[in-house]
Design a protein that fits this description.
298 residues, mainly alpha, Peroxidase, domain 1, 2 domains, two-stranded antiparallel sheet, 13 helices, 2 strands, globular, binds protoporphyrin IX containing FE, binds calcium ion
Amino acid sequence: QLTQNFYQHICPNVESIVRSAVTNKFQQTFTTAPATLRLFLHDCFVRGCDASVFLSNENAEREHHDDLSLAGDGFDTVIKAKAAVDSNPSCRNKVSCADILALATRDVIALTGGPSYKVELGRRDGRISTKKSVQHKLPHADFNLDQLNTMFASHALSQTDMIALSGAHTLGFSHCDQFSKRIHSKAGIDRTLNRQYALQLKKTCPVNVDPGTVMNLDTTTPNIFDNAYYKNLQQGKGLLTSDQVLFIDARSRPTVNLFASNNNAFNQAFVTAITKLGRVGVLTGLEGEIRRDCSQVN
Ligand code: HEM
Ligand SMILES: [Ca+2]
Ligand SMILES: [Ca+2]
């Protein structure tokens, strides 16, 4: 069981220490925000929110194909925040990497204009991270609604939670290979794509494009945490199949329409959903450990 005031007597300033380290890093590079937010998903969906994604060795989670595109700035944010926490004598080695990631995620959402919320704390760090454990655990860009719902439901997240969390794609970018089938297939351009938008995608991501080329996930406000993502879906401007399907499928469309028309409803649903995401598979009490170095077990 996590609690909001877990570190009250252990490290009372943990929230402000993390916030200033994250703010500092964010001011140097914007990618800090999307990279940290995505890292939280990739950690929580594999072995729970236990910082398993940070462990480094030849066979660790990070080596799996689905984690290779995680931007380094997300890892760097947590490592910097952890160093800041540990530089305070009363906090040294008392705050888990998993909790620092949860706090940093909250901070980057606020820094980009999203909602502020209280973070539940008390997670412990796991000792296991394997490439194999990532297989079939993360959502893919070509998933349909049933596949998305099944995967999120396995973590006690509802369809509404899933749609709200997909709103994280209001920030950041995707490499061309994640959506190239939508624009370069024999059957022609994906019919659910807005024509003009599709032409834009083809221009940025031609056949044999440099694999490092990226497109913003939110074509309107890629640097602001807002509900523009849902308004784009209404216009056929969802970048990934898994984004656009939320508007195409009649079962999820009403929720997309609600979030598109009501930023407040989106923010509230997002806070509920990310709080639930932060509870997924957590280690508490004497389980796991408080890692001294986020990339290494003690
Ligand atoms: C619903 C199913 C989801 C799918 C299929 C999906 C898939 C993807 C893919 C393919 C990318 C692009 C990766 C790349 O090429 O670099 C991406 C980026 C991103 N995802 Fe998701 N995602 C999903 C849900 C989420 C959730 C729940 C969150 C967080 C709460 C999230 C946060 C992000 C962020 C912030 C980026 C941008 C990363 C950056 O710019 O560095 N995604 N996602
Ligand atoms: Ca994990
Ligand atoms: Ca946006």
